[in-house]
Inverse folding.
């Protein structure tokens, strides 16, 4: 990761500030193999489903940058799955917490089916009253 970020000219990133570790090639290869199995299983899921509607995370929005400080990472397991599988997704605000923080729904579709995400998101946004500024 460090080598890629450096080659891209990124000079400030949580990945460059430590916290990561070097991984032997055999471990990296095993990780990529597990990732491939995960993606294949998700493709099987999509053979029976058109879209998936789920929470964006397990709680209302957190402060910008808080996730890179280790706060709330597990709560974002819903979005991590889509990032790992390359599935298109879109987020629609569906309400607010008692503190006025946004609560979102995520619409996910199979790879290359952004049209499904956008169509369902548009219907949800219309049904839920559209975008509103946070309190």
């Amino acid at each position: 990761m460090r080598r890629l970020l450096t080659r891209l000219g990124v000079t400030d990133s949580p990945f460059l500030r430590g916290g990561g570790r070097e991984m032997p090639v055999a471990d990296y290869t095993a990780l990529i193999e597990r990732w491939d199995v995960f993606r294949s299983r998700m493709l099987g899921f999509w053979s029976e489903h058109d879209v998936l509607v789920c929470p964006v995370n397990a709680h209302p929005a957190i402060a910008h940058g808080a996730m890179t400080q280790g706060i709330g990472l597990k709560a974002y397991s819903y979005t991590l799955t889509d990032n790992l599988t390359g599935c298109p997704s879109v987020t629609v605000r569906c309400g607010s917490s008692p503190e006025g923080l946004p609560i979102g729904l995520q619409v996910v579709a199979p790879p290359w089916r952004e049209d499904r995400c956008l169509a369902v998101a548009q219907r949800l946004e219309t049904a839920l009253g559209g975008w509103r500024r946070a309190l």
Summary: The first helix runs from residue 2 to 7. The two ends are 38 Å apart (CA to CA). The chain has a mean pLDDT of 81. Helices lie at 2-7, 25-46, 77-85, 114-127.
